Each structure stands twice: as C-alpha cells, then as structure tokens.
Amino acid sequence: MSDANHNARSLDDRAHIDAKRAKAWGHIIFNAILALLFAFMFVRAGELPSSMWEPMGAGTFPRIVLAFLVVFNVMIIIKELPSLKQTSALSQGAVRAWLIEHRLAFGVLILFGLMTAAVPILGFRWASLPFLIVCQYLLGARSTKALVIATVIALALSFGLESLFRHVFTISLPRGMWG
C-alpha cells in the first residue's frame, strides 16, 4: 500500500473515530442538560395550584411525564458511556464540526427555551405563534407560499391547541399578563 493510500485511509478512520466520540460526547452533554432541565421542571410542576375537582392535583401528569423524560435521558447517557472508552481523544476541530452539523437542533432548542420563557408573559397562544413560524422557517419554509402555509399552520396550532385544551379538556393554558 502506498503512503498516499495509507494516509487517506488513516484520515478516514480518524474522521470516523472522531465522529463516533463527538456523537457520544454530544449525546451525553445534551441529555445531561435536558435531564437537569426536566428535573427542575419536575420540581416546579409540584407547585402548580390544584383545584378540588382534580383528585391527583394539577402537577401529577406533568410530573409523571417529566420523571419518564429524566429516566430516558439518564438511560441515553449510560448507553453512550461505553463509546467513550472505545475511542481515543478527539482531534482538534471535531467538537466544532459536530456543533455545526447539529446547529439546526440547537437552534430549535434555543427557540423552545425562548418560547418557554415567554409563556408566562405573553401566554401560550402568543408565545407559541412566533416559535412555530420561526421553527418552520429554520426547517426550510423559505418561499412566500411556504411562509404563508407556515403562518396558517402556526395560527391553527397555537390558537387551536389553546382552544382544544380550554373547551374540550377544560384545562386552561397560561394566558399571560394581558390575557
């Protein structure tokens, strides 16, 4: 085998190893952050006010879901730990390449965080509307026609979900400071 072929193969092997280790680290860090976020939300869900018509309390269902999410995140972390032992240290630039490759997921996560922060102030309808429009833009709705469709979908989901919860499930979603 010539030196050129050996070096090319070594670079491909190194890129594969870097990708595997970066993926493992990415999953571990991302799921650890999510687990902490869900644990915080679990605690906060216990503070939801209960009414006398809800025998288990308003926070019971969210706490069950959040507990499952924390367990799921911990299971992913445990699953990824052996991948770290099987690979060597990352080469320079591997983390940056992984972050660039997953920028869309991080963009949607940041938008979700902004929406979550805006819900107490604006209410569910008005916080979810721009979130849904911008998410659809990030996911590829660029033409005028696609943006009009994205806006209609966002209106239907933000106002429709709020109406569904209020009138069918008799659960009030946050209305914000002016709702």
TrEMBL record:
Residue ranges annotated for the DUF1468 domain, each copy included: 30-174
Transmembrane segments: 24-43, 63-82, 103-126, 146-165
Record-linked Pfam families: TctB
UniProt keywords, alphabetically: Membrane, Transmembrane, Transmembrane helix
Keyword Transmembrane: yes
Name of protein: Tripartite tricarboxylate transporter TctB family protein
Species whose genome carries this gene: Vreelandella arcis
